[in-house]
Amino acid sequence: MTWELEITIRLLLAALLGGLIGIERETLNKSAGFRTHTLVSVGSCLIMIVSISMYLNYPPDINSPRGSDPARMAAQVVSGIGFLGAGTILRSGTGVKGLTTAATLWVVSGLGLAVGSGLYFPAIITTIIVFISLVYFAKLEDIVAEKKRLFYVTIDIDDSPGQIGLLTTILGNLNIKIKKIELKQNFSSGVAELELLVILPATMSTKQVSTILENMDGIHKISFQ
Q1: Which of 29, 43, 31, 34 is nearest to 111 (CA)?
Q2: Contacts 24+ apart (CB under 8 A), 2-11
Q3: In order of start, what are the domains of the chain with their CATH numbers?
Q4: Rounded to an integer, what distance in angstroms lies between the CA atom of residue 116 and that of residue 210?
Q5: Under DSSP, is residue 101 helix (H, G, I), strand (E, B) or coil?
Q6: For the ACT domain, which residue ranges apply (predicted)?
Q7: Taking the complete model, does pTM exceed 0.85, yes or no?
Q8: pLDDT digits (tens, 9 = 90+) for 106-143
Q9: Average pLDDT, integer, range 152-163
Q10: Torsions phi, psi of 13, nearest 5?
Q11: Does residue 99 have a pLDDT over 80?
């Protein structure tokens, strides 16, 4: 196999493996998707190829015992990818979003380095593990989280047009999932009683939710079970 063909295979394989992980991020509308992951993987692969080429062209000798060290350029990729990863992390309310995407960028840079150095098998196995983790482990996390963060909440609210819609909008903005809602009206008092089955985010407590909703006009009483 010629050197040119070997280089082409490495770059294409790096693009393929990085793109596979990027597709999963793209389907979830994450800030770093298919193109970003592909570019990071191919770029890392290219840098690794250049590092190895420099070592082969300028090996250690008596006058220069250190010569060229491919590990030095690879280390710069690993540390430099932190800038891209930091750009995908955003603070949202009481939580943080983008950590998984930042982690995938870091892994993809490693895939590029591995493919660039000719370590095809470890790169392919890593891609499979990462893809399974992203697709299937996320579903497992949701199942566990739902069981731990499921609450019944009763809310006394003004029986006026648009009030319930405003409440559900606020809950949605807080990333609170409404699994069930039941309305009990009291026409004499002008107050409606809502019974909701909700799933709270892992970073949010029932006290925080109560404090936020109590400051909303038209809310009279909130109780969690």
Answers
A1: 43
A2: 6/118, 7/49, 10/45, 10/49, 10/115, 10/116, 10/118, 11/42, 11/45, 11/46, 11/49
A3: 3-142 (no CATH), 149-224 (3.30.70.260)
A4: 54
A5: helix
A6: 152-225
A7: no
A8: 888 888 888 888 888 888 888 887 888 777 776 666 66
A9: 83
A10: -65, -40
A11: no
